[in-house]
């Protein structure tokens, strides 16, 4: 979307919730397990929804320094469990939910009270627990008419192309729409542009041509607005 292009006000009166950024799973008071998400795509989704008239809550985990988006309520979280609590609260009564956050699948089983020290021996083993799948939980608890959108960062591998993985993930997660980004080779993470496919639970499949994250956000909101009727 180029600056100055008029955006439709088709989300006026709608309440939407977007998650963004990467969760951080604390290991001790100074260390965490994290990921490379910058939060740019989630912020673009929040900004574009606000420009299209929605009341937007942005639940933001760790992000690059992106500035506060105008006319958006921002809730800051750290870990996946905090993100889950914030999403549960924010999505009550919402018309649409977009899970653009990169949620850590695992967290350290225990948070060490003090900084973990070298003692000259073998490094201590890292014990991990599985985090809840927040998207699956939101789908299971969704209110009638609420549209739920997931994201999937996929690399092609010997067992299939990104789209093949995306279709399987859409079925597994049960959301209405899934944005599939092809990642690896510097694509999607920490860069301004994005591309991929938008898959619908109704079998629809739209190519998302390479473009700004705001443009991709617009395509997502087009599809959400169509489903909200
Ligand atoms: N997600 C979530 N909770 C998790 C993991 C992922 O809500 N614990 C959401 C993400 O926000 C995203 C979607 O699920 O919208 C897909 O995330 P992804 O990391 O691609 O999926 P995983 O379930 O972790 O699958 P994979 O086995 O490919 O890692």
Automatic annotation (TrEMBL):
Gene3D superfamilies: CoaB-like. It comes from the Bacteria. Residues 11-226 form the DNA/pantothenate metabolism flavoprotein C-terminal domain. This is DNA/pantothenate metabolism flavoprotein C-terminal domain-containing protein. It comes from Pseudonocardia zijingensis.
């Amino acid at each position: 979307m180029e600056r100055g292009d008029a955006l439709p006000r088709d989300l006026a009166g709608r309440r939407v919730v977007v998650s963004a950024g990467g969760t951080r799973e604390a290991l001790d008071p100074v260390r965490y397990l994290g990921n490379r998400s910058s939060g740019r795509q989630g912020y673009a989704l929040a900004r574009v929804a606000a420009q299209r008239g929605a009341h937007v809550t942005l639940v933001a985990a760790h992000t690059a320094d992106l500035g506060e988006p105008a006319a958006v309520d921002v809730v800051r979280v750290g870990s996946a469990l905090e993100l889950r609590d914030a999403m549960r609260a924010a999505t009550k009564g919402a018309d649409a939910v977009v899970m653009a956050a990169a949620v850590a699948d695992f967290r350290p089983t225990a948070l060490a009270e003090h900084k973990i020290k070298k003692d000259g021996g073998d490094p201590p083993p890292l014990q991990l627990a599985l985090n809840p799948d927040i998207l699956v939980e939101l789908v299971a608890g969704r209110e009638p008419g609420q549209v739920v959108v997931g994201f999937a960062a996929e690399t092609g591998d010997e067992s299939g192309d990104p789209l093949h993985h995306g279709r399987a993930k859409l079925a597994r997660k049960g959301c209405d729409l899934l944005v599939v980004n092809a990642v690896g080779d510097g694509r999607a993470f920490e860069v301004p542009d994005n591309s991929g496919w938008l898959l619908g639970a109704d079998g629809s499949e739209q190519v998302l041509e390479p473009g700004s994250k705001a443009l991709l956000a617009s395509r997502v909101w087009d599809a959400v607005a169509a489903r909200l009727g």
